[in-house]
Amino acid sequence: MTDHLFNLHGDVLAAMRRGPKHFAKLAFVLSEADEPADTELGHFRDRIAAAGPGDALTALWHRTLTGWDLAEQADWSTAPPRTDARRTDTYDRLGFGADLRRALDSAVPVFKEPGPTVISKEFVSWYSRDLAAARSFYWNSYEQLLRRKGWSDAAVAGLDEASHAVVERLSDPTRTEAYGARGLVVGYVQSGKTANFTGVTAKAVDAGYRLVIVLGGTLNLLRGQTQRRLDMELIGQENILRGADPSDPDSLVGVDYQDDEDWPAKFVSHGHRPFNIERLTTRDNDYRSLLQGIRALEIEKREPHLPLYVPDNLHRAAARVMVVKKNKSVLTNLVKDLRKIGPILREIPTLIIDDESDQASVNTSDPKKWESGRTQRTAINGLISELLGLLPRAQYVGYTATPFANVFIDPSDGEDIFPRDFLISLPRPTGYMGVQDFHDLDGGGTAEETHVRGIHDATGDRLQEAMDAFVLTGALKLYRIDHGVPGGPFRHHTMLVHESVKMDDHADLALRINTQWHQAGYTSHEGHARLEKLLADDFARHADDGLPTPSDYAELRPYVSRARQLINAGGNPVVVVNGDTDRYFSQVDLDFDRTPNVWKILVGGTKLSRGFTVEGLTVTYYRRTTRQADTLMQMGRWFGFRPGYRDLVRLYIGREEPLTKTRTVDLYEAFEAICRDEETFRSQLSRYAELVDGRPQVTPAQIPPLVSQHLPWIKPSGRNKMFNAELVEIRSPGQWVEPTAYPTAPADLRHNTETWRPVLESLDSTPVTLTCSSSEHGRSDSYEALLGTIGHGALLRILRDLRWSVPEQFPPHLESLVPTGGPGEGIDDWLVILPRQTSARRTEATVLGSPPLSLAHRTRRRGDLFGAISEPKHRGVALRVAGALTDSGDPLVESLVRERRGVVVLYPVVEDEPRPAADGSIDPRELVMAFSLVAPKSSTGRERSLVRFRTVDSGRGDSAIIDRTDG
Question: b or e along 8-43 (b: 16 or more beta carbons within 10 Å of the residue's beta carbon)?
Fold first, then answer.
């Protein structure tokens, strides 16, 4: 039956491409004469209020309202995006009344999820929302598929926004002058980057890009996985079959996916096509010298005398898509074939997507060994450079979760892949299990207690316990299926064991696990007693209250038997995943696509540490060390989406693993440190993404200084990938800054303590109670402290004279405090706060004749670096006095606030049991005078940029360039 109301609303909204307009007036003009009731808003309100899941009209308004919520540049509203005020402006322009507004707000909540963070050069806008809507065949198909897969409207809207942000920064495929943009998209490990570049590909093909080359990792495993994903969700059945009759077996010879568990039901069907997509690779076949001849890459033009990029030619030509491995022979064949085509190459709008772009793509050759100053490239980097040279209209977009190697590329190397045009950081997706779910970064929380099980010398290897957890979680999944939880996410159930990169070690470990499995006694009384104890001590305690959980082990026991059978199918619970396909354990039952259920323990290294999605991963056993942050982060396969079993995820991780013959490292602490590096990178991108006077604060070429390093033994990337950049200044007005790199030598400790003498002498000996109750801060805290004040010049002299164990850590912050004389800038003085402990067990001592001071006990967690020094309860007052919060609720604190006043919080720290002298004093050689500071919020002058840096750029000779730019 025809849905007249839906059709009318579709027509009306189609007429609002430039923003909301008065709905009733447009509806009256566009409605059919015999359907006058459809124009009445009361019918619309009742339909929305009564709508169930899948209602087409509600989905239409969800897409539309969310699009208006997100619009960054809306000339019809002055309200910021993602706010209630923006939605109010929308309703006002639509002319909707209060009842309809309430119904729509209930059905379509205001989209407030964070969007992508974009660092970009100024670009020519060509990909408007109007153009995107006018040419959207493949995007609409992809969007509908995602909704059928269960994606929420908010998730689809977020993907739409993020993929649009990429495509609009590519070159217009119809422009006359050739230009190849270079960009980088940064996601989280296993967070849906493939969904983003599938959306980008769909929109790019719709817009006119006619050659798409996806560099799908360095392994056949990854390339095949990416090919299947694009075929299933974008290219579709018709483009795969290419006219073959799906009911005729003879016509299907040579057509892939006939043995795929999901073919054809889960492969998108387009019904008809506005033009073909021709696949130049298949699931099982990487790019080879083309069997059908070079004509497969020749694109016919409707108007032969005009260039391909002219719209009449472009939008009638078929697109070519290939997914190729980053392999020297494969890319060499592709380059050779392209060279044979001739001049038309210069006319083909091309999109090159480089998945895991920090792997193999980056030039790692040593500049010191280059002959006569000529750039020498590693094989893959050189072939990518050749591709870009052959295709002047090629747009290169790299995708990675570990971007440091990419932003360290020389920006002046015009033939390389530095993201000179844009860098986009994707937001953390809803439902994603990431660093915050495994690490208590702020000191509180239960993430570690819930999900992490440390492997120490004292605990033994805990491998049997991890295997028991794997069996138990499998049983719990089966139990949940029987109690109403959708079983789709439980199709595969896996455990990952990663101890080494060596294949010989993998074989030995697999044999050990296989032996241990068959000796575990999962059918014996002892085995069941072990599982019962693990359930009671661990999984029952941390179970999600919203999901079915058995009341006792007896209720779960039948499911344990079934889980054991699934894991032991074929007589072997172990699969080795590495580069040696001849070994006994290798690749058995590991095809997640063609196998109904993969319930196995996976042992591996490289193949399981980058890009490859381990479906159903629930228990991880991880003990491999590395000195590179990006390599370590890519091994975090436990990050990802775990619907229906988040509470069951467990990470068994080494806490005392040998790094050298004499040194052990804590891998959990290492992951926490590199996650902090990553979050620092993202947070600084967010700060500098905001335009100042309509212009970018920084361009991608200025990103290298934003990369940080929390652990001295883990570099952001390999040394052969790191661009030479040095950060000069980080401005953090109104933000808590906490140095941690204090010296260890007694002489240096004494020097620092003596340096702080003027501050200690400024302290009032009478303690006061400071309170901050702020909804902005989300806390209500109170504590005792000694107070003092010191002038800005005096504090600068102190800070400049301090000594550090890592000399480069604090100077960028110090530089930000140096006055430049700009209008509206400046700091007058600093409030000094020295918190006092009130516990009966507190330790106090005098320092250089000061009043008795409370000593804080802290430990160095990362080499010479301390972990957290400050206490969260001390931050609110400091932030309020510095102007970062609007009110503390405490008259005393409010009396301390000044427009140009910063705050220094002092922490006299001892690392061992203090040994005060008879007179109550402490030796300065045993004291770390730690501090945190908050520069006044007002100290950022309107015309001064938030970032300054020094970088060594080959295009500027050997000199260091300091950019001190306005705006």
Answer: bbbebbeebeeebeebeebbeebbeeeeeebbebee
Question: What 3-state DSSP class applies to 818?
Answer: coil
pLDDT tens digits, 93-139: 999 999 999 999 998 888 887 888 888 888 888 998 778 888 889 99
For residues 240 and 889, give the distance between their C-alpha atoms in angstroms, rounded to a whole number.
66
How deeply is 691 buried, as exposed, middle or buried, from its count of CB atoms within 10 A (0-12, 13-18, 19+)?
A: exposed
Q: Check whether 494 has a pLDDT greater than 50.
A: yes
pLDDT value, residue 952: 43
Query: Which residue, among 826, 832, 833, 835, has the nearest Cα to 793 in the 3D structure?
Result: 826
| 942: its two tokens | 């309107």
Rg (CA), the chain: 31
Strand partners, 495: 601, 619
- Our CA angle for 84, 88, 93, nearest 5°, is 150
CA distance 557 to 529: 11
Q: Give the pLDDT score at 824.
A: 46
- b (16+ CB within 10 A) / e for 388-404: bebbebbbbbbbbbbbb
585 pLDDT exceeds 60? no
473 to each of 68, 496, 515, 618, 640, how far by Cα in Å? Answer: 43, 14, 21, 8, 17
Return mean pLDDT, the chain.
84
CA 299 to CA 294: how far, in whole Å? 11
410 closest CA partner among 375, 448, 450: 375
Q: Which region among 566-580, 827-841, 902-916 has the lowest average model confidence (pLDDT)?
A: 566-580
197: confidence class by pLDDT, cuts 50, 70, 90: very high
What is the distance between the alpha carbons of residues 186 and 356, in angstroms, rounded to a whole number? 10
| Three-state SS annotation for 762-774 | HCCCCCEEEEEEE
Token digits for 738?
């906490």
- Which structure tokens are listed for 710? 């929390």
Please, which pLDDT band fits residue 472 given cuts at 50, 70 and 90? very high
Q: Which residues contact 101 (CB under 8 A, 6 or more apart)?
A: 91
- Residue 84: pLDDT band with limits 50, 70, 90: very high
**Strand pairing category for 650-654 and 657-658:** unpaired
> In this predicted structure, what is the pLDDT of residue 940?
60
Among 9-18, 731-740, 813-822, whose mean pLDDT is lowest? 813-822
904: three-class secondary structure by DSSP: strand
Residue 304, token pair as written in the block: 């032969």
With bands split at pLDDT 50, 70 and 90, how would you rate the model's confidence at 519? very high
> Which amino acid does the sequence have at 673?
A
Nearest to 499 by CA among 530, 463, 468: 463
Task: Find out whether 594 and 470 touch, Cβ atoms under 8 Å.
Answer: no
Residue 34 has pLDDT above 60, yes or no: no
Query: Distance between CA atoms of 966 and 692, rounded to whole angstroms?
Result: 9
Nearest alpha carbon to residue 699 among 308, 963, 395: 963
pLDDT above 90 coverage of the chain, percent: 47
| Ramachandran category for residue 601: left, alpha or beta (phi over 0 → left; psi -120 to 50 → alpha) | beta
Would you say 927 and 749 are in contact if contact means Cβ atoms under 8 Å apart?
A: yes
Give the confidence band of 639 by pLDDT, cuts at 50, 70, 90: confident
**Which residues contact residue 832 at a Cβ distance below 8 angstroms, ignoring those fewer than 6 apart?**
759, 762, 763, 787, 788, 789, 790, 903, 904, 906
Q: Note the residue count of the chain.
A: 967
| Secondary structure (DSSP) of 78-122 | -SPSSSHHHHHHHHHHHT--HHHHHHHHHHS----S---EEEE--
Which residue type occupies 610? R
